[in-house]
């Protein structure tokens, strides 16, 4: 294999954590993980009120959901640069503070602040999302699977909290939508305070992981994994951005709509934990692709155009499916790579390109809703994304490895 330029490996360095109990480190990781989704899931329940108050069009509302998702992929590429300069632990601390800043900016009032704060918050989330898996691998080498599962579950819990508690907190405290969004800066600051002992006096990482090789970008399997990662992410962010608004349009009050979205987000944690464990036991994961893609197909379309009497059941199916899709996408990145270096390269490609592609989904749903005035066309668009995700997932789930 040709020699390629190296850049810092987030997972390779293992500075000591003298005096820090593994339980404390784990709790710190869970607090950080919890804060990686409320910034994204808290906007959807408030979107009907924001549109009514500001006159925000469907296209711009779709952009409000789309731009942060795009930032996850774009700014995640800055994580290696930050790690090289300050180390992974200080990098997480810095990103948490930036996240709190972005959440605070969203509450200053007006659409420019809302968009700017959302970009700042999403940029921080993208950076932390790239760094954290390496920290898990470094500090819990013998329990990486367990910690990854717990990390994913807390991430889903944070998404559920953002979807379910934003509107009730707004009503209880008598806040406008700006203040309700600003509230989520508080747990981010708590996480930063809890992470501070881990970031103080830590050595900078040494050693390196390779830059993505040209061979990987020419490998059809790598693009199949990337496409599945991006399409299943698009399914999730369409739900985060538009499910509460759709339910309100269909007759639910805004609190009930937020609770349905919260139940769906909370259910994601179940299969996000189960699917990776079971799918990794077999060389071929195609049956799991069929299962996890079918569930959100039925669940979301049922919520958009089905009888509202079954809304809670549809929400449960939707959440289980999205959690299974996310867990399976991460699992395929590992299983389709032949060695750790290939896994690192494939992960960077799949998440960087995948999240950028995923950003189109919420934007297109906003345009479809504006153009049609209802939710039938967005439901058809969601079905098309599901079928596309299933098609690429079936290709990516075959027992092969990428070539680098």
Automatic annotation (TrEMBL):
Statement: the UniProt record of this protein carries the keyword Membrane: yes
Keyword Chaperone: no
Protein name: MFS transporter
Organism per entry: Methylobacterium ajmalii
Keywords annotated in UniProt: Membrane, Transmembrane, Transmembrane helix
Pfam families in UniProt: MFS_1 (PF07690)
Transmembrane segments: 20-36, 56-78, 90-108, 114-136, 148-169, 181-199, 220-242, 254-275, 287-305, 311-334, 346-367, 379-397
InterPro entries: MFS (IPR011701), MFS_Cyanate_Porter (IPR052524), MFS_trans_sf (IPR036259)
